[in-house]
Amino acid sequence: MNIAKNAVEAMGEKGALTIVVAPGPGFVETRFDDEGPGIDPDKVARIFEPFYTTKATGTGMGLAVCMRIITAHDGAIHVRPREGRGTSMSVRLPAARKDGLE
Hints:
- This protein is an alpha+beta fold.
- It has three helices and four strands.
- Strand 3 and strand 4 form a beta hairpin.
C-alpha cells in the first residue's frame, strides 16, 4: 500500500498508476508503474534508507519499512526509471506452496 501511495503522491494530480501482479517460477511479482517525474538516479540508492525523504513532510520510514518486510519474507524490491515515463517498482515474493509447507 505504501508503494502505491508514494507513486500517487509523486504524480500529483495527473498521471496513472498501473499495478500488475504476475506469477513467475517460484515467485509472484507485483509491479507498480507510475507516470510521475521519476526518481533522480543519485537518489535511487538512498530511497530505502531509514529517515531519508525528499518530501516536505514525512518521516522517510515508509520505503525502509517496506524493504524490511519484503526481505523478511525472502523477497526483493527493485526500482528502475521508466525513460520519460516515471518509475517502476517491482516486489518479488516467494510463491506459496500448494501443500502449505515450506
